[in-house]
């Protein structure tokens, strides 16, 4: 699963396609019933960028905005910047209630960091009575590292394109300056 995601990262895939593949692969690998990637905003809310679930099981759709003031895994990762685990049976905030309405009972989340700063989280949830296995946090962290690398690659590509545009613009400006100097200087003396 990690190799398939790493191959997608290396191929510089569209971020949305990458997020969809990461949630699917992480969910399947962990035996989860649902997996999501959430991007944190500076306003105490997060946006679900990708959501996957097993067939015939609903989930909060991609694009949904969730409050990060509760005690769900998403909120805990936001507050601590570390992997977290929670049982929805013990929580009463709106996101936990929504997850329970889909039949999910517990979840595990890992932080996604970009440039050393918390960017978001990847979360896997299960509807099974027993929680996800103990190694789920480590495995989610592996997926989170690949997402971080993909985000860093996309950021570097964007900065490179901007830098190239500045270089081309500077070259064009210098060419125009030389044309003006030739027109105003040497050409005028020849005339």
Compile the SSE list and pairings:
Elements: H1 2-10, H2 15-30, E1 34-40, E2 45-53, E3 65-67, H3 73-80, E4 84-87, H4 94-101, E5 106-114, E6 117-126, H5 136-190
Antiparallel strand pairs: 1-2, 1-6, 2-3, 4-5, 5-6
How would you describe this structure to a colleague?
By secondary structure, this protein is of the alpha+beta class. It has 5 helices and 6 strands. A 6-stranded antiparallel β-sheet has the order 3-2-1-6-5-4, sandwiched between helices. A hairpin with a 4-residue loop joins strand 1 (34-40) and strand 2 (45-53). Helix 1 packs antiparallel against helix 2 (15-30) and helix 2 (15-30) runs antiparallel to helix 5.
| H-E order | HHEEEHEHEEH
Outline type: elongated
**Order of strands across the biggest sheet?**
3-2-1-6-5-4
| Structural class by secondary-structure content | alpha+beta
Q: Give start-end ranges of low-pLDDT stretches.
A: none
Residues in helices, as a percent range:
40-55%
> How much β-strand is present in the residues?
15-25%
Question: With helices defined by DSSP (H or I, 4 residues minimum), what is the helix count?
Answer: 5
Distance between the termini: 73 Å
The whole-angstrom Rg is: 24 Å
Largest sheet: 6 strands, antiparallel
What is the averaged pLDDT score?
A: 82
Described by its quaternary structure, the protein is single chain
Let me know the number of strands: 6
């Amino acid at each position: 699963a990690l190799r398939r995601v790493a191959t997608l990262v290396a191929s510089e895939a569209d971020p949305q396609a990458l997020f969809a593949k990461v949630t699917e692969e992480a969910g399947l690998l962990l035996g989860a019933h649902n997996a999501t990637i959430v991007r944190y905003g500076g306003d105490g809310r997060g946006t679900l960028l990708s959501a996957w679930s097993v067939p015939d099981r609903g989930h909060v759709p991609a694009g949904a905005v969730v409050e990060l003031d509760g005690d769900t895994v998403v909120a805990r990762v936001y507050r601590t910047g570390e992997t977290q685990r929670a049982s929805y049976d013990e929580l009463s905030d709106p996101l936990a209630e929504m997850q329970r309405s889909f039949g999910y009972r517990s979840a595990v989340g890992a932080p996604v960091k970009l440039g050393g700063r918390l960017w978001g989280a990847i979360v896997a949830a299960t509807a099974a009575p027993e929680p996800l296995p103990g190694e789920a946090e480590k495995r989610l962290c592996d997926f989170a590292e690949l997402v971080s690398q993909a985000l860093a690659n996309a950021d570097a590509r964007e900065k490179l394109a901007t830098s190239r545009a500045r270089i081309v613009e500077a070259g064009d400006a210098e060419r125009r300056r030389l044309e003006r100097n030739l027109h105003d200087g040497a050409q005028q003396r020849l005339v």
